[in-house]
Structure formats: structure tokens, C-alpha cells
Sequence to fold (118 residues):
Amino acid sequence: MLKWEVKNGDDELKNEIKRVKNTFDEWYKSHWENKYSREQMLSENSPVERVYYKMTKTFEEVKEKYPDETLRACSSCGKHVNKWVQSLSSFYDEYGSDILLCKECVEKLNNLVKNIDD
Fold:
């Protein structure tokens, strides 16, 4: 059975920032330790600016610098939105994607369902 949730881009970006902070040390050691110092990686001259921002800047600064990271594409119409309805299912575990629908496509689906003859 599919489970549906309303999601928003701000919460998703906050979760991504938290994930980056929680996994930074392991990621840095396995990919960058022999190339750059930790200080370089977390400086304005970082070779991975997104990581530098997510590790050192406030949420508002990250969002201002990377506003597209709060958007997701609707699986139906492709429109990029900050709020969406998302299916939570085994599709993600098996195929790496869930269904994301913008408000307009949810309304279209709702109208379609209303017209199903029993």
C-alpha cells in the first residue's frame, strides 16, 4: 500500500544539511583527506562549495545561495515546486524514486478518482 505525505523543500533542505554534517567526517576521510586539509575543505576556497556552505552557513544562507535545492520536480507535469505530495513506498527502495505530485496534479488526480464509476 502506498503512503502519502505532504513535503516541503525547506524541510528537505534542512534534512540534507543535517545529513551532510552527520556524514562529513567519513566522506572527507574517504575522498579528500589526501588532497585537502579539513580547514581548506571548510573554507571559502573549498573545492566543494556546497559542502562548505552546508557545513558552515546558516539555513537561510544555504537557501539563498542554492534556492533550487528546496524544489522538486512533479512526476506528472515536471513543474518545480517547493511543496508537494509524495508517495512513500517500496518503489524507492527498489527503483530509487517515489511519486511526487504538485498541488495541481493532485487536484487533477482527485477529479479523476471522483469520476470513477463503482
